[in-house]
Amino acid sequence: MFSNITKIADLKDNVEKTVTIGGWVYHSRPGGKVIFLVVRDGSGLCQCIIEKTAVPEELFSQLAHLSMESSLTLTGTVRADDRSVGGYELAVTDAKILCPSQDYPITPKSHGIDFLLKNRHLHLRSQMPWCIGRIRHTLVNAIRQFFNDNGFTLVDTPIFTGIAGEEAGSLFEVDYFGLPANLTQTGQLHLECAALSYGRVYCFGPTFRAEKSKTRRHLTEFWMVEPEVTFIDLPGLLEIAENFVSFIIKKVLETNRAELQTLGANIASLEKIQPPFYRLTYTQASEILTSQKAQDFLAAQLNEFKTAKQETENKIAALEAESKGAIKQWRKDKIASELIDLRIELGELDTKIENNPKHAKLAAEFKWGEDLGGSDETLISLMHDKPVFVTHYPREAKAFYMKQDSENPKVVQNFDMLAPAGFGEIIGGSMREDSYDKLLAKIIEHKYKIENYQWYLDLRKYGSVPHGGFGLGVERTLAWLTGEKHIRQCIAFPRMMDKILK
RNA sequence: UCCCCGAUAGCUCAAUCGGUAGAGCGAGCGGCUGUUAACCGCUAGGUCGUAGGUUCGAGUCCUACUCGGGGAGCCA
Question: Do both A194 and A306 map to the same domain?
Fold first, then answer.
């Protein structure tokens, strides 16, 4: 029945031909003599022109009263026209309404985030989530392609697990037929087993963290890709990581430039992301944090914030003054929505101004041995225009499985990759401890039950080799690429602390 | 877990000193228009988050609770 449906994205190949499209009303501008219906079909938008003289009178009247998100098929001639979205339009000769939509809750005006999340099942149809979803698809595809093309074997690691990969405290516990089990926090430990079988492996799936974190950078369920490689050292891992990240960004830039533009992403800065990335040891990073340069940077930033605040306040005052004058209603609307945005901006600037001295203090008082805090990472990433690897963290601050450095026993061979412009950590990785004795000592030190880790220790007993890997968070990467402030927009149905909506 | 902010029409927001509840969008009806966040006119739409308190009088002040937003810590 629908075999003759043409996708809107393919209209460019059907100019002057008669086609049928199927989709949903995105926008309607009905008139006495001509109706403009913008229709979306998942592949794009198309403006459909319905002239009163071209269709039966009853159909014209029905189409004139069609509201947002009504579903229908439309038949007509494709015309190239610069006045239409996408450059093509359909001169309609016939249409069939499938399901008229009444009182669709999402309107073209702005909505609050709570409302949109409650209506997430419908919000997915809107432009922003649609663009992000398309980019996510490319990103996921590119991730698989990179590893598949570089000799990695996909291994699906379990979601129910008996042991913790990261530190406890962020585990979701489940009742597994009366036995305690957890949802996976990482596929790494299982992946290491597979790496010793295949050499180069990766896993890609959902990951669960029960962290009580209500921030724009946290989900309780997120997707992570984790490669694991044998016969490698830390510099080798960094090389894979920077090639990997550069590859996926290149693919997104190639495939989704239009979506990135719609979302207002910083394309120019993404185009700069090419190997090599910056490399800092933890010790160098801590020196930067406590340096005068960092303090000067923060002071300059504070001044920028204050200037921006002043400018924003001036803009608000000017708009408020204009709004009180005798002006057209549409201008008043525009001012009102601009004012809302400006006030949000002002609030964010206030937060930044408030946090800046705290961050300066944290940075200045940074002591070797602590883990890098969020603000420290942000500061370092802001001071660089490309991603930064921070390596060799203090052993005490890091997970038990990370390999002790041969030259400096106080540090481990690990790395975090910080995205530029303050987006923070998107990759964490390390060489794994391959010495049976050292790993055992760490397990004992952490007071973990040895019997739970015997299988993991076995990997160091039977043909242990140097190996390592890393994990990349899909939603955080997507937030970075798209310029989305909040990670919750980067997955179709976000799971957040204390909130499962559907 | 801690700190800050908020809750008014379906949605986004106003409401001055504590004194009769207002717009726009969306919805419905009509008009007009190669329109494009179209425009113009009319109509409907409210127990001001919940429960107390202060007051002649509370959307506005106070207390508690619920829900939401932002930030800190922690992390991908």
Answer: no
Strand B atom within 7 Å of A214 CB? yes
Walk along chain A (502 residues) in steps of 10 and give the mean pLDDT of each run.
86 93 90 88 91 88 88 93 86 91 80 86 90 95 97 95 66 86 90 96 93 81 95 96 97 94 90 94 90 87 84 75 61 68 76 82 85 84 90 90 94 93 86 95 87 92 96 94 89 81 66
Domain containing A94 — which CATH number?
2.40.50.140
- Residue A431 CA: distances (Å) to CA of A55, A132, A139, A296, A416: 69, 33, 26, 35, 12
Element (H, E) at A280: strand A278-281
Determine the pLDDT at residue A190: 94
| Same structural domain, A322 and A235 | no
Within A 25-44, residues with CB less than 7 Å from strand B: 27, 29-36
CATH number for the domain harbouring residue A471: 3.30.930.10
Contact A29, A15 (CB under 8 A): no
Q: How far apart are the first and last CA of chain A?
A: 33
Note the strand B nucleotides within 7 A of protein beta carbons. Answer: 1-2, 10-13, 23-29, 31-40, 68-76
Domain span at residue A380 reads 116-290+366-490
Given A30, A64, A99, the domain boundary residue is A99
